[in-house]
Amino acid sequence: MFKDLVIHFYTNTFRGCITQGHNMTNVIRIRSGLKDLTVCKELHTSVSSSLMQSIFLRGEERVRTVSERTFEAFGIIYNCSIYTEKWGNNFFRGVASKTETTIHNEKSNFMIGKTFYGEKEEKKAIFPLEDQNAGLTSKEIQTFYNISEQVPSKIYINSSDFTNKTPDFKSLSYFIQLMPGEEKQRLNELDDSIKSSSFFSQLHEEPLTEMNFKQLFSNIKEELGFKSLEFEFKCNCNKNSMMSFIEKLDLAELIELKKITRIMKCSHCSEIYELTSKDIEPYIK
């Protein structure tokens, strides 16, 4: 299974993380049957957001980014929704969809949610999308950090060169936060230093490794510490959990359900399960 590397880095004045998110975006894109290139960019923004936030958590915490919008293109109304989530220690999952509709319900927002270890309640922040046609962009994620975080933050998410012929694309994303008490100008200087590196544009196309990460940050004068984590696409769904609703059905509904094979799809990963008459029989008493 393909994995994505996320590197968490830190000094005395700032902390951050960097990733490319290639594999998670491509896996979700393929599993969701996604072809619209604008939605693919939106998906990658969501993947990058969830991946980069996850690096600051420990263990079983969950962090997810969800966007929903209704927009019109060439006289056709579409509903678009994207869900990406880091769960467990090193697992990641998500779905994306774009479907035609006849109702324009002005739905256009995104949510970032975090569930910390040992807590049942999710901490949510919901914001409107600036442009329904563009969907979720790095600008919206930056707005979230400007409003929600108590320390200055800088976001960079690039997802260019999607094509219809190949799922590969140029990509690089990083997230930097200034430590408390530091001058905000220091954050801008650091951001400029990264982007002015001769290796910056090259890293959009080369696989992210610890070696080229160090090269990208070679201009940093402070002592730089870092740690790396790999994330793989995996969901904790299974057929038994998908069938849990059957126990709530009455006899007439069970008999009707038994007549034909039905398809169940996980809302977190798009995995498909078949519900056959043999699956129903044990519940008919």
TrEMBL record:
GO molecular function: protein folding chaperone; unfolded protein binding
Example GO biological process: protein refolding
Signal peptide: none
A Pfam match: HSP33
Gene Ontology CC: cytoplasm
Glycoprotein in keyword set: no
Keywords for the protein's UniProt record, in alphabetical order: Chaperone, Cytoplasm, Disulfide bond, Redox-active center, Zinc
InterPro entries reported for this sequence: Heat_shock_Hsp33, Heat_shock_Hsp33_C, Heat_shock_Hsp33_N
The name this protein goes by in its record: Uncharacterized protein
